[in-house]
Design brief:
Chain lengths: ~90, ~230
Amino acid sequence: MIEAKIYITLKSGILDPQGKTVHHALENLGFTKVRSVRMGKLIQLQFEDGVGKREAERLTTEACKKLLANPVIEDYRFELQDMNANENVGL
Amino acid sequence: MKCGVIVFPGSNCDHDCYHVLKEVFQQPTEFIWHKDNDLKNYDLIVLPGGFSYGDYLRTGAIARFSPVMNAVIDFANEGGMVLGICNGFQILCETGLLPGALMRNESRRFVCRFVYLRVENNESAFTNACAEKEILRVPVAHAEGLYYADPMTLQKLSYHRQILFRYCDETGELTPAANPNGSLESIAGIMNRAGNVMGMMPHPDRCAEEILTSADGARIFESVLLWENKLVAP
């Protein structure tokens, strides 16, 4: 079974008040060496058995473009992982 | 003018919009369930405020794929008048009928209070009943109302006079304190290039009668009616 881990992040330059607030909280706790904090989302998609890596890649890209990320404000990237790697070496 | 108010799962201002159109302005008005897809008989479609689909993923992101939205896109592309208020504005941006996006308020807080709006263009279908630079007192109630668009889009919006409302103070000045959510250039409401689709975060539906302490919101509905009558008249 293939799983896609999709990371959705705000485009660089776009204000992230949530990240700023968390950064501030970290500073108050003594984490003074953190330069900045940006918050994003992690979305995991598990595909049906029989969906190969190429198809999973195509479907994930389509899902990101159509629904999961808003291209006006967000970027996305993803990783595919074979969750039954032992059985499907060489996928 | 035949008006339709779309009801998504999670809409909560649908009855406010219905009330204003039906009772205050005495227009034939119907609710349209989000699974309907025939809008041929309508002159105005309103996307009301609320929390459609629980605001999951992003505000308006799931509602955008409701069956009725394809009909709304066709309706708008054929020149039909579409008004999106609050969550309706967010949905119109997600749909691409309006440029830009609505993001989490700069304060990170839900803001619920009266604000002042300066009418930036009083010659549109949605503002022609307003005086030039008129100041309206209208409530906002949202957590995701920060209007964002890239610099090029902002320039185009301004150049084509698509910015209809900006947050201002009582005297009409654009100050940071008067901007309830950190919207770029204090933008509170915009229309599309063709001028038939408008979205705004403040709620004119909540202030269209004197008993609600402000009737300024009525101006927007009045504008749409005046515009429609002008189109119908020879």
